[in-house]
Amino acid sequence: MDDVALAILRVFIGFTMAFAHGLAKLPPNEMLIGGVSSMGFPAPELFAWLAALAEFAGGIFLAIGLLTRPAALMVIITMLVAVFGAHGADPFQKKEMALLYLFTAFFFMLHGAGRWSVDHFITKRK
pLDDT for 91-113, tens place per residue? Predict the structure, then answer.
C-alpha cells in the first residue's frame, strides 16, 4: 500500500506542477520575464524559459517517475527561487504552495520514485 500511496502523491504533485504551473508559463510572457529580471537574473528571457520548462518538464518526469531525482532537483531549484526570490518579502501564506512543492520534490529526490514508476521498471530490467 505504501508504494501505491507514494505513486498517487508523485503523480498528483508532478501533473499539478506541470499543468497548473509550468504549462501556464509557456511561452513566458512579459510579466514572467519582468519578474525574473527584477530578481536580478542575467538574460531574464532565458531564465524565464528555464523556469517554465523546469516546472513543466520536471513535473511530467516526476509524475511518470522518469529520471525522478534530476526532475525533482529541477523543481527544487525553481521552488527555491519562488520562495526566496519571487515571494521573498511576502507573508508565509504566499509562499506556502511553493514550499509544499519544494519539500515534496525534496522527498522524491531523496527517496526516489518508488516501485510504481518508469525508473523502477528500467532498473528492474537491467
Answer: 999 999 999 999 999 999 999 99
Q: Rounded to the nearest 10 degrees, what angle do helices 44-64 and 30-38 cross at?
A: 110
40-70 confidence digits (pLDDT tens): 999 999 999 999 999 999 999 999 999 999 9
Q: Do 56 and 22 meet the contact criterion of CB atoms below 8 Å apart? A: yes
| pLDDT recorded at residue 1 | 65
Please give the model's pTM, rounded to 2 decimal places.
0.92
- Which of 112, 52, 110, 56 has the alpha carbon at shortest distance from 82? 52
79 and 105 Cβ atoms separated by less than 8 Å? yes
Domain ranges of the chain: 2-125
Residues 6+ apart with CB under 8 A from 122: none
To 10 degrees, the CA torsion angle through 106, 111, 114, 118? 60
* Spacing of C-alpha 38 from chain mean position: 21
